[in-house]
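Hello again, I could really use a second opinion on something today. Take your time with it, there's no hurry, and the full record follows here:

___
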Amino acid sequence: MKFATTSDINNRATHYLREVSDEKEEILITRNGKPIALILPMDEDDFADYMLVKKYGIDKQKIDLKKCKTLDQLKESLLNKDASIRSKSRKRP
């Protein structure tokens, strides 16, 4: 894991993002010596897993990811699942 200050990120954001992307290096961003953010390498599968668990609280086994070939299809599937969950919660008395 590498460390960078907010000033470093401000001045060399492209450099750091390239390190994360190409070298799969994690970068901890600090302000006044304290951690404030973490930049992690991520591919489409990682993003899909993150969205399912973090944002939607859905176990990825509940959605057929084999049908989702692109991020747009995944997003559509998640939106449909989200709408389904909302409509079920509204039907409760």
